[in-house]
Amino acid sequence: MAGLELSTLPQQLVNGILLGSIYALIALGYTMVYGVLKLINFAHGEVFMIGAYAALFASWGLGYTPNNAMSGSNPINLLIMLLASMTLCGLLGVLIERFAYRPMRNQPRIASLITAIGVSLLLQYGGQLFLPSSPAPNIDAKVNPYQDNITIPLRPVDGTLVAAAKQLEAKQIETKTAFDGYLERTKESPFQLSAAGQPFKKAAQDAERDLRTAEGKAEASGLSIRLPKGQMIMLVTTVVLMALLNFLVMHTKPGRAMRAASHDFDAASLMGINVNSTITFTFLIGSALAGAGAMMNATFLSGTKIDTFFGMLPGVKAFVAAVLGGIGNIPGAVLGGILMGLAETLVVWAGYDSYRDAIAFIVLIIVLLFKPGGLLGSNKVEKV
Amino acid sequence: MKFWLGRTGSILLAFALCAGIQLLADQQSDFVQRLIVLAGLYVTLAVSLNLINGITGQFSMGHAAFYQIGAYTAGFIAMKFYAGAKLPPELWMILSLLTGAAVASVAGLIVGLPSLRLKGDYLAIVTLGFGEIIRIIVQNQPAIGGAYGLSVAPRFEMIWLVWLLAILCIAVCRNLLKTAHGLQFLAVREDEVASSAMGVNVTRTKVTAFLLGSAFAGAAGALLAHFEGFVSPKMFTMDVSFIIVTMVVLGGTGSITGATLAAIGLFFLPEKMRDLPNFPLGNLVATGIGIVIMVIGFRHIAANFHGKMVERVLRYLAILAIAVVIALVLGPIVSKLPTLGVPVEGAKLRMVVFAVTLIVLMLLRPQGIFAHHEFSWAWLRKVLRIDTDKKVTA
Amino acid sequence: MIQNRFVQNLRFIPMNRSLFSAALLATVLGITAVGCTGGETAKDKPGETPSATDAAGGGTAALRPEPSGEGVKAEGDTIKIGIVGSLSGDQKPWGEDSIEGGKMAVEEFNAAGGLNGKKVELLVGDSASKAEQAKSAAEKLISDGVIGIVGEVASGHTIQIAKSAFQKAIPVVAIGATKTTLSDEGTNVTRVCYTDDFQGPVMAKFAFDELGLRKVGVMTDNQQPYSQGLSKSFSDKFKALGGEIVGEAFYESGQTQFNGQITELSAKKPDGLFLSGYFTEVGAIAQQVRQAGMKDVKLMGGDGWDSPQLLVSGGDAILGSFFCNHYNNREDRPEVKQFLEAWKKSHGGKEPGTTMAALGYDATKLMLDGLKRAASLDSKALIAAINETENFAGVSGNITLKGANGNPKKRALVVEVRSEKDGFQVFRKAYEADEVK
């Protein structure tokens, strides 16, 4: 409800795109499965959850357990975690398809949808029996070697303000040494001071505050955006995967098979396409992408807690992203995901933090009312 | 005349039944009363969603929103107006039931309108989104308690009313289907273009379905508010909507009988599992294997055996027996393995059993337990008489 | 075939329609008719009428209504009391600790001979970190015949338990529920912890005086009433002291990405951030705050931070932060030492991970203490006895409930978050109940 702060807008746009790249990766899986099977794979969010656990266990396997002080890491570790997560998720996706969706293929779609909800509940609650979930674990931040930021200045800071702040530094150091010296002499705790120590403390606090205020002013005079390296990797990966996937679907033989199957199973199989293996392949790719998203989400956003409901919210939002972009459309999923991320951060920017989880749906409803097929989707409405 | 006798008789019977439930519930503990009330509410919810999903074919996944709106409306008017109204509790409850239904149906109208443009999965995700939006908006209104929730005071617990609402809901849906209006709903479900060519007002039919369905959900919400004495946004998350949809589909899309029985069954299943003891993981694994064998066997029979009914049933029973024996024998054996001997907390299995039941039932009977059938004496006679190789489902 | 049925029905429309509406009308009228008979039973139920009249009476009604039910008598050879805690979900660490603490208190009580030879049996209810589960767990316990309930740790859960217990006039001793208005539910509700309108101001005073902060940003978990209440009491006091709340941000439990909120707060250049949510999100927030470049900003919170898991999720980012807690394992009081010794004996030499163990122990012991003093062995006498508690020497400090409206005056400790090696929580400063108001 606060007034709009223009200075944070560039940073928020960056935040939005970075957040959107996670949604986009998950949305790609939804969109592929939907494109071929016309099935909302409700268990996709749970595949994402399992991917996060796979990455967690891989990181534990590499020695980054909570009780083990490791220092530093390297990209190879990340790659191992990524592979573990993508492999496991791919396999899980194939298993789910084989045992829960394939038997339902000739049945009403709502029945497969309920099966999907069932699988999703099974993974959420069954997972609680085997996976550590309370207290929820998280991947140790130290496994991520890309914790720093790339800072891109948009407007330089005011030199005179920086100089002014520099001048206050001497006073801060002086008062702090005086206070530390006092504590050293009297062996008092800074929190249980005698009356004699109070002036020292007050002086140190005042000087520190003045310094910080001046520094803050100097910083605010400039404008820069901060690109967290880890999340940048996530964004680049998303875009690369999208391009690869688009190539796969549009320009390769398996891709042509997928497109054919999505049009008509029977006709496709008459043309010599193995529909079953095509669908299996689709699930493999889609689920592996969810695994990649999960690993990067859990690793690059340090401290992210992982429990068996980890995939629920991202799953629903990614599905909304896929529908927003036009479900079944690969660039549409990425566009939808990024738009969703932007919408969420812009709502926060505008001061309506509490509506962050609602905005996804509000955008969706508005878009669908005007373009029922999604942004990049065809407007051909289909029948349940 | 005979018809009127039957009708009056069934109305009287309904009241007698509700009075009976109330008398029975009064003897029980709060815990059991709670189960009785919630079961009744879930029946209302499932049957009213069935009107939208099953009968009219509009895939709605936001039923919890109407439930929530009804609950908050009842809570709000009790807080604001009860003191001034000076009404006897029974009249007040009817009034808040109607208000809850009215407000929820306004919301139903708002959701129903997009349904004119959207179909299938798109409608599903929009209704799901609508549910979430309502929940988040409510959560951010301090005037009605925000995240903390709203206390309902004064509150009146009337168990008979809960079940009367459920029966009323069933009666309305059932009678609706016996009129030309009802056939319009079915026609819209089967084919919109054809039905509009036949003179069915598709727009009006869809909106009516949403209005009626949401009104009943709202009324159920009002009763929930008074029974719990407290409503909070957390009570109306998407899970609730999912569970209601599941009840409808599992019972048989479009079947009122199915929705009713599935609502009761699915509600009691997890509740019954609350006190499950701990047991070794091996038993769980063995049970899983048994279930897989049963599913594969049953599906094989359903697909390949076309003999007499009796023989088929015998084959089903044989598979079932094999599965049970394997599960029972295998359990203690694999539990000897060190990794499979670890105990599993039985209480944690509640939702797992729920999920497995869903999957297994859908795999074995995708059209739902009752498919599109309704319970009637004629239907029962027909089922019992069948001994040819024709399947009941058709 | 459908067409056929359609035509058939068309012929009957007039009749069917009128029948249908007549039936509907009859049913609606019928509801009112039955209402007059069925309603009586509802009215006769104990606990129904007082709450109705209280609310109808308007705002002037007494703050803590007296439960009017006749209460529950202890029957048989054992006296049953119940404890509710989360054995699964987010709050499992607290639930487990508090239940273990409760069991310990009961074992000690029984080992010391029980009450005139009668043993106490502790029944456990699982609230699974959900308010509605807390309610049904409490109702299950009540139907199993308990005469008192200990619990819960979370305010949102306790209020549900309190409502169910009020109707049956059963006492509830809350363990860690700090929401201020909780005890207004009825005289049957008491607690062994301080309230949010104490711990918020304590942290405000600590931030202002001891840390010298003047510009603070506040982050609130909008799904947790606890967090909302705490943020408010902190902000009010901090502003009253002369500080400035430069920004407020909100999130919901379960979210994992806070960059949007953090960017907004960071633009306001605060000296400190008050994170009033639970440890489940605070660790991730701390890491993302540091990553966003707020290196020197002091982080603070309430007793919702109290779990060793905070160190796992917060990593290095959370070290050097401060939060408010109920007691500290390092305190030099005989009660604390005895408790820790007994705990270590039954838990393989480990100290309890959270303070909820001690509070659960205190709450249960307080109820057993009330049982000793109760005039008769029923829940109403127990309520009276608990409300008369004076100078009960608990692990977490002295508790007096007489004349306290269910909210004992307790002291609060501010602790610093240090690494596991340094003992996680390092005591910094204690505030007495009268020091902050």
How many domains of chain A? 2
Q: Structural class given helices, strands, pairing of chain A?
A: mainly alpha
Low-confidence stretches of chain A: none
Main sheet strand line-up of chain A? 1-2
Number of helices of chain A: 13
CATH architecture of the largest domain in chain C: 3-Layer(aba) Sandwich
Helical fraction of chain C equals: 40-55%
Question: What is the CATH domain class of the largest domain in chain C?
Answer: Alpha Beta
Helix-residue proportion of chain A: 55-70%
Order of helices and strands of chain A: HHHHEHHEHHHHHHH
Straight-line N-to-C gap of chain C: 80 Å
The CATH architecture of the largest domain in chain A would be: Orthogonal Bundle
| Spatial separation of the terminal alpha carbons of chain A | 42 Å
Oligomer: heterotrimer
- Low-pLDDT segments, ≥5 res of chain C: 1-62
Provide a concise account of the structure shown.
Chain A is mainly alpha-helical and 384 residues long.
Report on the architecture of this protein.
- The complex is a heterotrimer of chains A (384), B (394) and C (437).
- Chain A is mainly alpha-helical and 384 residues long.
- Chain A is 68% helix and 3% strand.
- Chain A has two domains: 6-149 and 227-370, Orthogonal Bundle (ABC transporter involved in vitamin B12 uptake, BtuC), CATH 1.10.3470; 157-221.
- In chain A, helix 1 packs parallel to helix 7 (229-251), helix 2 packs antiparallel against helix 3 (75-101) and helix 2 packs across helix 10 (275-300).
- The radius of gyration of chain A is 26 Å and the shape is elongated.
- Chain B folds into two domains: 17-274, ABC transporter involved in vitamin B12 uptake, BtuC (Orthogonal Bundle), CATH 1.10.3470; 276-385, no CATH class.
- Chain B is built from 15 helices and four strands.
- Mean pLDDT of chain B is 84; it is low at 387-394.
- Chain C is of the alpha/beta class.
- Chain C folds into two domains: 78-194 and 332-406, Rossmann fold; 197-325 and 415-436, Response regulator (Rossmann fold).
- Helix content of chain C is 46%, strand content 16%.
- In chain C, helix 10 (309-314) links the parallel strand 9 (298-301) and strand 10 (322-325).
- In chain C, helix 3 (92-111) runs parallel beside helix 12 (356-373) and helix 6 (196-210) crosses helix 7.
- The radius of gyration of chain C is 26 Å and the shape is globular.
- At the B-C interface, helix 1, helix 2, helix 3, helix 4 and helix 6 of B face helix 1, helix 2, helix 4 and helix 5 of C.
